[in-house]
Design brief:
This protein has 2 helices and no strands. The chain is mainly α and 72 residues long. The relative contact order is 0.10.
Length: 72
């Protein structure tokens, strides 16, 4: 997704300064698509990090329970 955002950004940078390009709506739409895509990627990444971090207490509890049963 990052590569797609970079490519679309380069496309905007190449097309937008041309004297014949006077359609700001398409430029704004492409920037909006890039922004929404990057926000989606970041939010999915954060969900994966949070879900991985939530496994730590579960593993600690399982190992503590296993250790406790060995002691008894």
């Amino acid at each position: 997704m990052l590569l797609l955002a970079v490519l679309l950004g380069l496309c905007i940078g190449w097309v937008d300064p041309r004297p014949t390009w006077d359609d700001a709506g398409i430029t704004v739409g492409m920037i909006l698509v890039i922004s929404v895509g990057m926000i989606l990627v970041i939010s999915v990444g954060m969900i994966l990090v949070i879900s991985a971090l939530s496994l730590i207490p579960a593993f600690l509890g399982a190992y503590a329970g296993a250790l406790f049963t060995r002691i008894l």
